[in-house]
Specification:
about 325 residues, alpha+beta, D-Maltodextrin-Binding Protein, domain 2, globular, disordered N terminus
Length: about 325
């Protein structure tokens, strides 16, 4: 097998809580107070073009019966969705939804800041908001409660944290299996669980009985890998950058021992309430136009520092080979 490598996102990125695509516990040190130090990057207020500017199109005029759709976002979840230093709202998910909004005359999106985590989903489920964005993967559990558009909003690259000395032998699920390795327990309520479960189902000859469980502190996972208790931790790169790479990260003492490598590129979605299927259908009717313009790649190049779309395609590779 040939291991893929991609650029590491700048270590100055602030934590996108590891619950971004699931329900596992957020790092305990990623307090709201610390989020004031967020690096805002190239927001629309500092050079990032809107979709209409980028694509050279005019926004659709609101119809007489325009319907306001409230969408919750994590106000400190850079680069996915966040409140800018000027008090606006930006991020990959947000800018893509603004693009969709510009093409829908019957709907007007209003973005509602939230601390993030489970609050986002609870707000949609209780009817407080119509939708939520936070790098969501689809899971069977969520499909039973919420409405997903058929088409994805973005692409999330997730991977494994391993010891640097093991990177040539453990860099994806197949090599974890071949090495007889052990993953840090995966939360059954997290999108990562669904990803790993599907891989095992698709590769029965290499599947293994991985442990499940919930972390109370994500920094523990990095300590366990560094100490040899586990061979790999399946999680997002932004979490690794914030907790391990960043000098003020709670697991920075392991920076010389650990590295992160991508192993899965998974489609991500905006979530709507069970009563908002019409909004999901409207989203599906215009999102291809946004993708086809190249705007998604443009946003990622500016906010992530790397264009995952060009590397993996809109639908992702599923798992690197």
């Amino acid at each position: 097998m040939k291991r893929k490598t991609i650029s590491i996102i700048s270590a100055t990125l602030v934590t996108l809580a590891l619950t971004a695509c699931g329900n596992s516990a957020a790092p305990t040190d990623a307090s709201v107070a610390k989020q004031e130090e967020v690096q805002y990057g190239n927001t629309q207020y500092e050079g990032l073009q809107s979709y209409t500017e980028y694509a050279g199109v005019e926004a659709a005029a609101d119809s007489e019966n325009v319907k306001t759709i409230t969408i919750a976002y994590g106000y400190s979840a850079y680069p996915i969705a966040y409140t800018t230093k000027d008090g606006g709202v930006s991020g990959y998910d947000i800018e893509m939804l603004k693009a969709v909004d510009a093409l829908l005359p019957d709907y007007k999106f209003e973005f509602v800041p939230s601390a993030g985590g489970d609050d986002l989903l609870l707000g949609v489920q209780s009817g407080k908001t119509n939708g939520a964005v936070r790098n969501w993967f689809q899971t069977e559990e969520r499909r039973q409660i919420f409405t997903f558009p058929e088409k994805n909003l973005g692409l999330s690259v997730t991977g494994l944290t391993v010891k640097k000395e093991n990177i040539d032998t453990i860099y994806d699920f197949a090599t974890v299996s071949e090495a007889g390795g052990h993953l840090v327990p995966v939360d059954p309520g997290d999108g990562h669980y669904t990803v790993l479960k599907k891989w095992c189902e698709a590769n029965p000859d290499k599947a293994w009985d991985f442990e499940t469980g919930q972390l109370t502190n994500s920094a523990d996972a990095y300590a366990w890998v560094a100490e040899g208790r586990y061979d790999a931790y399946f999680s997002l790169e932004v979490g690794f950058n914030a907790l391990v790479v960043a000098e003020d990260g709670s697991a920075h003492q392991y920076a010389d021992q650990l590295t992160w490598t991508p192993c899965a590129a998974i489609p991500t979605y905006v979530i709507f309430s069970a009563n908002d299927k019409d909004v999901a259908d409207a989203f599906d009717s215009v999102i291809d136009q946004v993708w086809d313009s190249g705007y998604a790649s443009y946003i990622q190049e500016n906010l992530y520092g790397v264009d995952y779309i060009s590397l993996y395609g809109r639908d992702g590779l599923g798992f690197s080979q």
